Structure formats: structure tokens, C-alpha cells
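Continuing the batch. This is chain 6 of the set; chains 1 through 5 are on the previous pages. Same settings as before, nothing changed between runs. Recording input and output for traceability.
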Amino acid sequence: MTIVLFPGTFDPIHYGHINIAKRAANLFDEVYVAVYAKEQRNILFSPQERLALVQEAFIDYKSIHVIGYTGLTVKVAKKVGAQAIVRGLRVFSDFEYEFRMALANNRLEPSIDVIALITNEEHTFLSSTTVREVAALGGDVSSFVPPHVEAALKSRFNVLGEEQDIVPLTSLRD
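Output for chain 6:
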């Protein structure tokens, strides 16, 4: 049985993440979507909220399991019995970052490989940062995220109001 780990912060999960996880599920027997659950600055949703959003996204997929974790990703991969870590690549800059991380993870745990899946073309622009910024500005994110995530974003920004400082508004408001 081939088990892989797909780790991330997922703040929030979006259709690019979901696409990578589903494609991994078509290639491997079991996929663990691992939500980094340590409290961090500038994170919109708590670890528990992110876990719940990710769990709902994969509720109908028997071979996709959602877990929370802290600490080293390779240690979690080893704990769940994963042979590899799956990562998604959108643009060239992703490759450079993922390449460095793969080398570091290989140094820490040589038995865990890294497998990179190229994102589908329609998701190349999509990042959690973009989703948060569009939602913070009241934009339509319905083509970026599932309906339950869109509702959570609207609710969060209604509570935070226009004076929120979690999401830096840098590029989309001009």
C-alpha cells in the first residue's frame, strides 16, 4: 500500500489544493492531508477551523484522511507510514522553494521522497494569500474555494471588519 502526505497551512483550502489532493488520491492508495496546526501570526483561521474546513472538503473521499500536526513534516510522514510527501507546483518560484525543502527533508529523513504535481492550468494563479486578499476586499471567491469555505471567509471578514490587519492588502485594491 502506498501512502503519501500532502502537508500545508491551508489558510484557507482552495480548489488548487483540492485538485492536488484528488490527483494524489488517484495515484496512491492513501493520502493524508496534513494541516499545520500551530498557532501563527497573520493566519486567518485557527488550527481547528482550518482542520474543519479541510475535512469538509474531502468528506466524500474515503482514501483522503485529514490530520492536524505540528513539528517537522517528515516526522509526521514517517508516523503515518507515508513513503512520500506530495507538493503542488504552480510557477517557477514554487519549484525553487520546494526543491530546497525537498533537499532539507531528504537530509532529515532519507526514506521519505518528495513528489511534485504540477497544478492544473486553471489554478496557476491561485494561492491562499490571493483568496484571503480578494475575500478581505469583498470580492467574489466562489470560483476559488468551495461554498463552505466562501461562507467561512465572509463570516470572518464580517467579524473583522475593514480595519482588519491579518490580511495585508497589497496588490488587489489598486
